[in-house]
Amino acid sequence: MVAPTTGKLKAIIDEIATQLDTVDNLRVYKYPADSVQEFPAAIIQDNRATNQTVVAEYRATSPQAVYHLEVVVLVHLADEQAAYEEMEKYTSADSPSSVKALMNNAIVAGVQIIECTKAEPRRRYNLGGASLWGCSFWIRATVT
């Protein structure tokens, strides 16, 4: 996905990035990255590895559109237990670093709601030849 340059989708991605930027030491990418050098990292992208089959649903009535995005949070820890413990702050709904809680704070004009609808199980990701622990969060934005 090439980062959008204008429009509602760009505003949504920018706001998701703004919310993620509030987490200390979390490096945020607004587009799929070929490699990541600083961890932890969050990558905002189209839902490629999830069961979502569309990036956007367009409707003739309100809401006008529903956008589906994915936030992948990666940690660079070789030890499985340490990686799970690090990921806990992003997956727990009540943590200040929770992706779900952060999306509840997201506000974009003309967007009814931005919400984290679910997280997939924590697992290993291969990115730029590195094996990294991470978790995918599914984000839905409803546009009025």
Write a short abstract of this structure.
By secondary structure, the protein is of the alpha+beta class. 22% of the residues lie in helices and 35% in strands.
Question: Could you name the key traits of this structure?
Answer:
STM4215-like, 7 strands, globular, alpha+beta, 7-stranded mixed sheet, 144 residues, 35% strand
Topology of helices and strands:
Blueprint: H1 7-20, E1 27-29, E2 41-46, E3 56-58, E4 65-75, H2 80-91, H3 99-104, E5 111-119, E6 123-127, E7 130-143
Parallel strand pairs: 1-2
Antiparallel strand pairs: 2-4, 3-4, 4-7, 5-7, 6-7
Series of H and E elements: HEEEEHHEEE
How would a crystallographer describe the biggest sheet? Answer: 7 strands, mixed
Number of strand segments: 7
Uncertain parts: none
Number of domains: 1
- Gyration radius (Cα, Å) is 15 Å
The CATH class is identified as Alpha Beta
Helicity level = 10-25%
What would you say this structure looks like, in words?
With 144 residues, the chain is an alpha+beta fold. The chain has one domain (7-143): 2-Layer Sandwich (STM4215-like). Helix content is 22%, strand content 35%. The protein contains 3 helices and 7 strands, in the order αββββααβββ. The chain has helices at 7-20, 80-91, 99-104, and strands at residues 27-29, 41-46, 56-58, 65-75, 111-119, 123-127, 130-143. Strands 1, 2, 3, 4, 5, 6 and 7 form a 7-stranded mixed beta sheet that branches. Strand 6 and strand 7 (130-143) form a beta hairpin. It starts with 6 loop residues before the first helix and ends with a strand. The mean pLDDT is 87.
